Amino acid sequence: MLNIQDVHKTFWVKSSLFKKKPVHALKGVSLKVERGEIFAIVGESGSGKSTLGKIVLRLERPDKGKVLLEDRDVFSMGKEYTKLVSAVFQDPTTSLNPRYTVYQIVEEPLLVHGQKDIPNRVKRSLELSQVPLEYLERRPTQLSGGQRQRVAISRAIVLEPRLIVADEPTASLDASIRREILNLFLKLKERNISTLLITHDVRAVEYTADRVGVLYRGVLVEVGSKSQVLKNPLHPYTQYLLENVPVKHPRERRPRSFLEPMLDETSSCPFYSLCPKRLEECRYTLREVSIDGRLVKCNLY
Ligand SMILES: Nc1ncnc2c1ncn2[C@@H]1O[C@H](COP(=O)(O)OP(=O)(O)OP(=O)(O)O)[C@@H](O)[C@H]1O
User: Fold this and answer.
1) Residue 185: closest CA among 209, 201, 213
2) In a 10 Å sphere around its CB, with 0-12 CB exposed, 13-18 middle and 19+ buried, how is residue 163 labelled?
3) What is the pLDDT of residue 207?
4) How many CB atoms lie under 10 A from the CB of residue 259?
5) Which numbered atom of ligand 1 lies nearest the CA of 26?
6) Does 1 have pLDDT greater than 90?
7) Which UniProt keywords apply (predicted)?
8) Which atom of ligand 1 is found nearest the CA of 215?
């Protein structure tokens, strides 16, 4: 349904008074999201996850590559695209208009798209995201963080989209609420709505995802089913990421050495300078192989 083909995105940031340097946020990312699938993009801060989400939402344009929704280039689609693809962001406090009531927030996309039967559709959407109807006249500041995120999800699904891009939808919430919000995405899946779940939270991936893509410095290093990637990670970076899923106490965590600046920006593999299993050839070439239906960008295979 969603087909991302060889997407590249470079930002130019000021390095000194007169100079700019490139930040390669995405380097040839390709993936497909099927109907009703929850596809998780996982990676550490700065790996390019949000940039990919923004490109799918058309908030950024790729420098190269294509994004297709049901075989149509999303950048040549009109307003219709915003009916088919919607977004849920990390912080509902900033993504919801504080002056609007819950009803007005959820109603807005229906008005923008000239829809009929608005009151009933708003109510159905709120029910589906488990927002009590007595909250209809409340404003975001009168709701808890979890309820605000439910309202944001109601707004995202009110037009019955094909795909939701959810960028860290549980990151601002208490642990006790996180699972409830993730359950909503599982419910949407039953209604054949796909989710591109952008997260650094491996537990969220474990709980919800069908397939997982691991992003490292703009390169999708591994893509496979949840069980393939989480139970038997092949890429050395995925292995590192999973070994460092937050443990009970910060003292038990390993140093996050892989967030150090790259020592060798010119090597083919983005993980070259930090990889414990690197080969000499990884400086010059990077192979993508398919193993049991999963993709790995690594010369070890
Ligand atoms: N508008 C921008 N201008 C300049 N650099 C940017 C811009 N947006 C992103 N970047 C850079 O691109 C890289 C990828 O950023 P991105 O936000 O996509 O990563 P991320 O994996 O979502 O990280 P986080 O979880 O911290 O948001 C980073 O180095 C970031 O600093």
Assistant:
1) 209
2) buried
3) 94
4) 11
5) 14
6) yes
7) ATP-binding, Nucleotide-binding, Transport
8) 21
